[in-house]
Amino acid sequence: MYNSHKRFKHLDDTNQRLRRATVGVFLCLGQRNTTMYRPFLSILLLSFANALPAQPELEKQLQTLLIMAEDGSTVEFPEGTFTLSNTLSLDAKKNVTIRGAGQGKTVLSFKNQKQGAEGIKVTNAQNIVLEHFTIEDSKGDLIKTQQVRGLSFRDITAQWTGEPKATNGSYALYPVQCQNVRIERCTAIGASDAGIYVGQSDSVWVTNCVAKWNVAGIEIENTTNAWVWKNKAFDNTGGILVFDLPDLPKKRGGHVKVHDNLVTRNNFRNFAPKGNIVAKVPPGTGVMILATNDVEVFNNKIWDNKTASTAIVSYFIAETPIKDKDYNPYPSRIFIHDNIYSIGKRMPTWKSKLGFIFWWKFGKRVPHILYDGIQNPDWLDVNGILKPGYEICIRNNENGSFANIRADKLGLFKGKISKNAKPYDCEF
Amino acid sequence: MTANFKISVLFVIAVTMLGASDNCLIHKYILRQDLEDGAKPKLSDFAFYTGKISELVPAPNVFPYEVNAPLFSDYAEKARFICLPEGQTMVYDAEEAFEFPTGAVIIKNFFYWNDASVPQKGRRILETRLLIKEEKGWKALEYIWNTEQSDAFLEVAGAAFPVSWIDEKGKKQSIEYIAPNLNQCKGCHSYDGQFVAIGITARQLNREENNENQLLLWQKSERLALPEGFDPASAPRLTDYRSTDHPSYVKTSAGKQSTNHVSAAARSYLDANCAHCHNSHGPANTSGMFLDIGQTDPERLGVGKAPVAAGRGSGNRRFGIVPGKPNESILVFRMESDDPGIRMPELGRQMQHREGVELIKAWIREMN
Fold first, then answer.
1. What is the pTM of this model?
2. Helices A407-414 and A353-362, interaxial angle, to 10°?
3. Where are the domains of chain B?
4. Residues pairing with A121 in the sheet
5. In the A/B pair of chains, how many CB contacts fall below 8 A?
6. What confidence tens digit (pLDDT) does each residue in B69-108 have?
7. With an 8 Å Cβ cutoff, is A262 touching chain B?
8. Cβ contacts (< 8 Å) between A92 and chain B: which residues?
């Protein structure tokens, strides 16, 4: 398993080279150090006054820095709270680092945003590092990166402040169509869709992150080769989701490992606007795998998620018509093992159709691992068991009780539940 | 002072080498220098216009153009021009943007009439956007006009300032006008991550101006190379969705327009206002919703299509388009919104385009 991580080694090397090559491009605002940085300022020829400029002027200077940044440079945002009205964007750069003075020290606030659907947007770039700052309260997403090869988010707090609410933006950290993505030691709070959302990407690490008070804590969607480990996902509606959805340019995700995470107390009400797939996630979901292939979930602590500690489901459960002919709505090659489960006796949520079914079927004794049982008939052998290459395997989980709700034959409510875990006792 | 001196020296060199109006880019090198020096080059340095610059009277190698389906930009008017280097031509393409010679510049001036019902009362030009064709591709530059209207100045980071005007109905309008920064230009002008021109296509430019076809006119003046036997009638052409016989513009008119016309106008509107991002090679291809004029798959257009990453942009609606039900369609919700996290297009619009919304609603209403 861990051997697989070495594929990212080149990224490490790149980053080291990057650090060495860092040239000081400093945004210097306060009195102190002004003299020291004067040579750099003259390179930039942005005439910063000694006094802090008014916010609109400052915003312009920040954006100018990002537009003018040379490949290989580091743009440093100083300590302080910056109120921004427009997206800060970086496009078509190589080896650029955007660095703050630390989480809670450099705060980019988009509370008064007037233009742009995200706080920071990075596009068409290579080897970009974003680190050491807090970003909050944008109208759309907080940080969206698209078409970036080699990308690190480190030590970033990305949050919507106040009570979690439907008017919060969608995604806190949102890499899409990216390659070699590392999200480390980041905190995502309050997203009305997903806190850490990786979409249509390849080769992804999400590690040592915290996701709380989001609808989905961490979501890996139509993404290949993702490792999600040593994170804490708690007090979300759903902790960690691995989804493949139809109608997207990148058709299939898969080869996802979810391990050594703490996924607990994800019982928060679902505050996502309807229409989105996460709006259908029942409060009380720990780990949910939807229509993805090759997913391994192991060594996690999955505690106190009241409705579905782990759910393995097809896209049919979303009850949305599928028109994408190339889309595979069934999960396959799923391996759930060596996790530690606990729920205690708690009612599953009523506030979602799925939750209601569980409550209807199980009352206070909802099994930990739930499978919707909707299977592709072409994948079954003569005994009605999934053929090798498509199997669902569940083994060696602590307290890992199982139920197949068999939503296939009889509809969501009528299916006669099977608690027989025998057909799923396998590994690969 | 040093910068000014450099500019003057380079100016003299450039003028000597290239002649005053032979090339649209006599100041290219100065400009480069300026970008590095952080000085502010002026629009007037390009000599696109003769006489008083705010009159926008084009120089000999500069000529105006009009499009069939304009992009809505908060009701701003646009004065569009193309500058071609002396003796050079554009090359026609039926589908993609025309091919431009190196050194060509596409110029778009954004302005409001002081009083739209009485244009004689003058106008205020706010910004001029340039697309410059360099050897390696297109590049954008953004100029902001001063209030005296004596010139416009380079602003890489864009600008925001309050603007008010009186609209055609005599109503006072005011907004915080936002001119894009250079990265935002590429937010729309992007095809597989490369900077591209958008509106310079056959379907946008194939139109009559003063009873003469624009493309044929340019062929005559040797500005455009057309294929042999070119016939405007069989060439692509977007419907002018502003045409006054359209129901969304003359709502009180008794005769109901044919569905065909509404559909053509709506598709033309979507092509011009959405498809620069919403196509399979554009920045919004992540959504799987493609609104280009050539799109024939209803689901790609949004019919019965669930959103992917719309977040609160879904507005609690389930599908992009629900046939017959504009008020249940996400497409309409996002066109109606003025919230930066919801509205579409993401950039360049703060006000609702009422007529555009009406048109798209009419189109959806008539769908089965």
1. 0.85
2. 90
3. 41-225, 240-365
4. A89, A144
5. 160
6. 999 999 999 999 999 999 999 999 999 999 999 999 999 9
7. no
8. 186, 193
